């Protein structure tokens, strides 16, 4: 009886611990992210990181550009599009920094999901592509980058943010 209870607890505990990624992977990702994106990084550095991510997304999926007309994607250096980039990168920052707090991270991804469900044309596929773009962009910016570790943590975040979107 005790043994069965222990097995159930171990399995449930394991499942909870891996809803996003393992504690070990989360610790690496949070530490490497904070070395890149921290309070000492200037607003311009943060904007450049975000701009590189969006440029790379649009290179791979040119059809996605039109989704951002409202925020003046026609001029990618405009205040409107720069502000959009900062909102997205800010959402990513809060999510990564919450990898150690699963309930908080679940609330954040639910909120981001709700903000995307109302946008026509935003798909799960777009988020999967964003995941690939993030991995390949961050590979150039993060020291000792391990793509598997980053994928383990980023993909579940992006999946949670897009789980109710059309394929
Ligand atoms: C790391 C992943 C992402 C994060 C953290 C993120 C975050 C955000 C945030 C914070 C907003 C502003 C929401 C608001 O103020 O209402 C937003 C808007 C938006 N996002 Fe995302 N996003 C992500 C990925 C994507 C992807 C992959 C797409 C589509 C391919 C997308 C499409 C949009 C669109 C169309 C808007 C509305 C822009 C507007 O204001 O007109 N997002 N996103």
UniProtKB/TrEMBL annotation:
<keyword id="KW-0561">Oxygen transport</keyword>
<keyword id="KW-1015">Disulfide bond</keyword>
<dbReference type="GO" id="GO:0019825">
    <property type="term" value="F:oxygen binding"/>
</dbReference>
<comment type="similarity">
    <text>Belongs to the globin family.</text>
</comment>
<dbReference type="GO" id="GO:0005576">
    <property type="term" value="C:extracellular region"/>
</dbReference>
<keyword id="KW-0408">Iron</keyword>
<dbReference type="InterPro" id="IPR012292">
    <property type="entry name" value="Globin/Proto"/>
</dbReference>
<feature type="signal peptide">
    <location>
        <begin position="1"/>
        <end position="17"/>
    </location>
</feature>
<feature type="binding site" description="proximal binding residue">
    <location>
        <position position="116"/>
    </location>
    <ligand>
        <name>heme b</name>
    </ligand>
</feature>
<dbReference type="InterPro" id="IPR000971">
    <property type="entry name" value="Globin"/>
</dbReference>
<dbReference type="InterPro" id="IPR044399">
    <property type="entry name" value="Mb-like_M"/>
</dbReference>
<keyword id="KW-0813">Transport</keyword>
<dbReference type="InterPro" id="IPR014610">
    <property type="entry name" value="Haemoglobin_extracell"/>
</dbReference>
<feature type="domain" description="Globin">
    <location>
        <begin position="20"/>
        <end position="166"/>
    </location>
</feature>
<feature type="disulfide bond">
    <location>
        <begin position="21"/>
        <end position="153"/>
    </location>
</feature>
<keyword id="KW-0479">Metal-binding</keyword>
<dbReference type="GO" id="GO:0005506">
    <property type="term" value="F:iron ion binding"/>
</dbReference>
<keyword id="KW-0349">Heme</keyword>
<protein>
    <recommendedName>
        <fullName>Extracellular globin</fullName>
    </recommendedName>
</protein>
<dbReference type="Pfam" id="PF00042">
    <property type="entry name" value="Globin"/>
</dbReference>
<keyword id="KW-0732">Signal</keyword>
<dbReference type="GO" id="GO:0020037">
    <property type="term" value="F:heme binding"/>
</dbReference>
<dbReference type="GO" id="GO:0005344">
    <property type="term" value="F:oxygen carrier activity"/>
</dbReference>
<dbReference type="InterPro" id="IPR009050">
    <property type="entry name" value="Globin-like_sf"/>
</dbReference>
<dbReference type="GO" id="GO:0005833">
    <property type="term" value="C:hemoglobin complex"/>
</dbReference>
